[in-house]
Amino acid sequence: MPSGQLDFHRDLFSLLERELKAMAELKQILDRETSALTYERDSELLLQLISEKDTQVSDLKHLETERARLMEGTGIDNDPSQITHYLSTEVQAQPLLHLWQQLLSLTTQCQESNRLNGTIIKLDSQHLHQALNLLRAENSGDSHNYGPQGHTTTANASRLLGQA
């Protein structure tokens, strides 16, 4: 193996290890966020986790930029499928391929965890809006009824009594 290629593999190995470590830390933050959203309901903890998550994502972006420069220097596109193809075809790159596959798998897990957390937040927001609407209806004298098509309608309670 030429010296330049050996240096490239060593640098890429080191970089992929750092990316994998940073992605594992992000996964831990996301898991803690899921727990905080589901069980703890601690707003200060959530704000802390959001800050940690932002920092970790920023660190990961810097590592990806570093990887893009490294790959570009050897004429390989930083596209994940291109990296996978290169690492799959280079016999000497098998340890790199293993790290790369771990990184891709962990990235997918982080995306799913983040999507789950977003869904939890969305459902909580919907429940909050529904509760607020119920409180507003009680305070304004409005009541919710169902129309002939099964859709919720809002009618003033005094009009309902006057129509009955």
From TrEMBL:
Keywords: Bacterial flagellum biogenesis, Cell projection, Cilium, Flagellum. Residues 139-164 are annotated as: Disordered. One of its GO terms (biological process) is bacterial-type flagellum assembly. InterPro entries: FlgN-like (IPR007809), FlgN-like_sf (IPR036679). Belongs to the FlgN family. Required for the efficient initiation of filament assembly. This is Flagellar protein FlgN. It comes from Thiolapillus brandeum.
